[in-house]
Amino acid sequence: MCNGDIIVIRMNDHLIYFTAIIDWYSKATLAYKISNSMDVILATDILKDSLAKYPRSKVFNSSAIDYQKPLNIYLDMSKDVA
Questions:
Q1: What is the CATH number of domain 2-81?
Q2: 28-32, long-range: CB < 8 A, 24+ apart
Q3: Cα(26)–Cα(66) distance, rounded to whole angstroms?
Q4: What is the pLDDT of residues 47-70, one digit of tens each?
């Protein structure tokens, strides 16, 4: 089981976005990225990184409000790997 999450960090005059994919059982960070903009590339880059290094998880959870979009991206990307 994996979890994808985006944490917004407020700096003095801008926002920083920390995105990570974490394995629930081992608590290991499978992939992460820091960016100054939140877009689809931010999410897909860490998905690509984690799928390149680790086997596809059977369960993927995201705390995003529009959870269907990250889930569909994950499923589409992991089809190529599986």
A1: 3.30.420
A2: 30/2, 30/54
A3: 26
A4: 888 888 877 777 666 665 454 555
